[in-house]
Design goal:
Layout: H1 2-24, H2 29-32, H3 37-64, H4 67-70
Length: about 70
């Protein structure tokens, strides 16, 4: 349950802060990469992808009877 709450909060953070921030900082993208910005934003994108696939994965795992492995 805590994982789902964290994922929902991450999604809200992504929508409100991360996407406008990437648009704002786009010209500085190449300069920010050595500072670890690429890892930060790629992690956010990976988290968003995981959040978007969570209902699909959960539904599939419930159908197969192995839902506890996906949580």
């Amino acid at each position: 349950m805590a994982n789902i709450i964290i994922r929902i909060l991450s999604l809200i953070f992504l929508i409100i802060f991360a996407y406008p921030l990437t648009l704002l900082l786009h010209p500085w993208w190449i300069l920010m990469q050595p500072l670890g910005a690429y890892d930060l934003f790629s992690n956010m994108i990976n988290e968003l992808t995981t959040i978007m696939h969570l209902p699909e994965n959960l539904s599939l795992s419930i159908q197969t009877g192995q839902w506890w492995w996906q949580l």
